[in-house]
Each structure stands twice: as structure tokens, then as C-alpha cells.
Amino acid sequence: MVLFGLAVKTPSRRFSRTLSIFLAFVAISLLTRAVLLPVSIIDLDEAAHITGSWELMQGKILYTDFVDNKPPLVYVYYALAQILFGRGMLAVRLLTNLITIPLTAYAASAYFDHDRRGIIAGVVFLIYSAAFLGHDMLAVNAEILMLLPATAALVMLKREDRAKKFLRVLLSGFLIGIAALLKYQAILWLPALAAAILVTPGAGARKIRVILVLILGFLIPLAGTYLIFAATGAANNLLHWTIFQNISYTENPIPLTEIAQRFAFKFLPFLIVTGFLWWEAYRSRDLLARYEKVMLGALLLFSLPAAFLGFRFYPHYFVQLYIPLALASATHLNTLLARPLTAQAKWFAGYTLFVLIGFTVANGILYYWMKSVYQETNPVFGEVADRLHAVSTNTDDTLFVWGFAPQFYYSTRLRPASRFVMPQTSLTGYIAGNTYSARGHAETSLIDNADWDLLMADLEKNRATYILDTAPSGIHRWNYFPIRKFPRLFEYINAHYRLMDNIRGVSIYQRAN
Rounded to whole angstroms, how far apart are CA atoms 309 and 219? Predict the structure, then answer.
């Protein structure tokens, strides 16, 4: 091509096509998720994540100066988003909706070499992962973030010949390791990849060596992370909060009646919404080569335990199933959606649009009009922030929130006065996702006096400017955990703080001196 007398090399047709596919995925991602893009906090986990990222950006050490049970790359991701697009959750949503999620769809498409099946897989992922409760599916949670490296790991081994190349296998394991540093459930895909390797032609001994290479690749980023924390003296804290605390969290002593209720009201609706995909995945099995059939079938099988961990059935636990469903169903959907469209194809297309539009409208109503369903929409977070900003002029002011409400750290922009941004099980005996526990039946045996020592030392060292007591407000049922039940904190507040205000049941205490 000649332009203004200069020879200009045009992009190849293949590059233009793949770029077009990616840009189309960006458009679909933005369209399906735009409804909650302006919302400050969709799910309280976001508030905890972004608070952790702010501490990280201030040079604080994760799991020492800030504690939670999420893997470290979640906070790194949130920090990266704000470096790129500015401070706040909008930056995180922009990075996620414009780059991370479209790239995940692009990786799903790459699994089928960007042919028609691949495009279908990408579109199915984008639509169905937005067609459920926005509180979980449209929030920037760890599950949606882990899918990008995890799906890229599948692409590394998408064909039998690739599963015989040690470098690709090593890289695939490495990517699963990166995904696990976003959410540990990514490890569930390792057995699926191993199962696919086992059905490749060749000697059994070589297959074992290949699987060992896969495991080695997986361990590299985990070992590197451990060494980084060891260099700062925080390795034991890393293991305590992200491994041992998660094991305790998963054990979740929950009554059978509550398990049945959660299954019926959370997981069963998900199965109904995605029912077409499960059926199409089943119908695709005879159209796939043995290697693909084993890999995709194993992915579905091994992703299911993620939904059942602790029997909480939080919808964001189901996110891990979207990529396996999209990939496993794409082959028969390719046949089903061939022109001219059959009645069944029209039913599928109509149903898909119905659930997408239905949940988009419902999510908009739940966040903009019906502000009594999700605690994240409670105006108290903004009102308390306005009250504190009216009296606080010191950038060194700090805040401690007694309650399961990290949104206050986000709305006020005040630095946490303690590493315990959310009072953990070790402080209160409260177990998240357990209604029996949330109603005040705390597991007091889980309370750790050493963590109480850390909390009180934090408050004294940082001389918390403000303490918010959310118990009287009942936010997230914290009315069952009044301060008077915890004498050390109760006496400390009485000795050093005065009641400044009470907004919608949230008591605001200001340090007396």
C-alpha cells in the first residue's frame, strides 16, 4: 500500500480479524456490564480489596499491616488498576470490563483458534457471566480475575501435540499458579489438565514426567511469592491468613437446613439460568476429539467443588464454571446456530437475551431504586463520610470500624487504624456466610487472644482518630456483636473516646484528646 508516496505495510488479514474479535468482545463486555459501572461498591469484598490495595500502595505489608484471607495478587491487581486509571473503584471496573474480561473471552476464543466455535464461546462467556445477580457477577471479585490466566493455561494445552511439549506444559502450570494467587480455587483446574495429558498417546512414564512439569510450573509463582514475603519477614503471616484461615473458613459448621436453603435459593437458580449451556455441553461430547472431551469434561467436573466450598453457595463461587461451560457447549452451539436457524436455535437465542435483559434490569432496580436489599446501597456510608469530612482536616486521621462494613474505609478515604479492616473470626467468633453465626451464635472457641492483643496494640499505636460502632445499626446483622460483649474494646473506647454523633444507628466516636 502506498500512502502519500510512502510504502506502508498493512496489517495482515489474520491480525485484523483477531483485533476485530477482541474489540467486539470489549464492546459486548461493556454493554453487558455498564448498568453497574457507576456504582461505587457493588459487593463489600470490593471495599476490603481496595482498602488493602491502598495500604499496599502506601508501602504497607500485606497480612502484617493489613489482614484478610484473599491471595496477594488481588490487591496488586486493584493497585495496578488505580495506577493506570486513577484512584477509586471506577478505575478497577474500567480495567476489568475493558481489558481483563474481554481478554478472558479472547482466550476462550483462542482455544478454538478463533474459528466460529471460539467466537461463540467468547460471546457465551461474556453474556452468561453477566446474566445473574450483579452483586456477585458484576463485582470485581477474585473469581472473575483468576479466569484470565486460568483460561490462558488451557490455551497452552488446547491440542494433544501441545501437551507433549515441556515448555508449554510448564507455562500452563505457571499460569494456573498465577490464577491461584488471585483465587486458590484455580488449583482445581490442575487435575483437569493432568487428565487430558493422561489420554495423549505415548508411554505412561513420559506422561507422568509431563504432569510433574505441569506441577512444577504451578509451584514456581507460589514459591516466588513465598520468598518475597519471607524477605520481608511476613511469610508466616502469609500462610496463616491465606492458607490456615481459609481452611478454617471452608470448614464452616453450617446446619443441613441452611445448606438446603442456600442450595435452593442460590445454586439451583444458577443451574436454571445456565441450563441451556449444560445441555449443549452434553450434546457436544460426541463432536469432540477424545483429548478435548476429557479436558472440557474434567474442567466442568473439577470446577463444581468450587461452588460447594463451605456450602455457602455464594453466586460468585459459580463464576469458575462459566469458562468450562462456554468451551464445552461451543461445539454443538456452532451446529445449532447454523443458518437457517431452527426453532430450537431461536429458543436458545431468545432465552439468552431474556436472561441477560432480565437480570440487567433487575440489577439496575436493586442498586438504583430498591435500596433495601443490598447493604452496599445503604446511604449511611456516604452520610458518615460527609460527617467526618466536615470535621476532619488532618490527612493523618485514622479510622477503625467495628463491624462487617469495610465500605466506610472506602467512603471516608481515611486510613485504617488497625490491620483488622473487617473483624475476623479470631476476634468475634463470627463466621461469614453462616446465618446461625450471624444471628449471634458465635464460635467463641475460635476467638484468639493474640489477635485481640494485635488489635488493641494497633489502636493505641495509631491512636485511631475515629471509631465507628455499627452494631446499633444492624448492618450485616452486627447488632448481635455489640461492643459491650468485648470488654477490652468497650473499656478502651470509654477511656479514650467521646460519642460525636449517631447516624442511622452508626455511632461515631472521636478520640477525646
Answer: 23
How many whole angstroms separate alpha carbon 312 and alpha carbon 250? 9
Domains of the chain: 18-368 (no CATH), 378-511 (3.40.50)
Query: Which pLDDT score is estimated for 3?
Result: 41
Mean pLDDT, rounded, of the chain: 93
Closest CA to 313 of 96, 48, 133: 133
* Lookup result for grid cell 488489635: 455
pLDDT in tens, 380-410: 999 999 999 998 768 889 999 999 999 999 9
> What's the whole-model pTM score?
0.94
Q: From CA 448, how far away is CA 428, in angstroms rounded? A: 9
CA nearest to 33, candidates 23, 44, 42, 20: 42
pLDDT tens digits for range 138-182: 999 999 999 999 999 999 999 999 998 999 999 999 999 999 999
Burial of 13 (0-12, 13-18, 19+ CB in 10 A): exposed
> Beta partners for 401?
468
Q: Are 168 and 193 in contact (CB under 8 A)?
A: no
**Beta-strand relationship, 398-402 and 415-416:** parallel
Pairing of strands 497-503, 506-511: antiparallel
Q: Would you list the DSSP string of 207-262?
A: HHHHHHHHHHHHHHHHHHHHHHHHHTT-HHHHHIIIIIHHHHHHH----HHHHHHH
Q: How far apart are CA 169 and CA 349, in angstroms?
A: 37
Cis check: omega of the bond before 324, within 30 degrees of 0: no
For 237-266, write each residue's pLDDT tens digit: 999 999 988 787 776 667 888 899 999 999
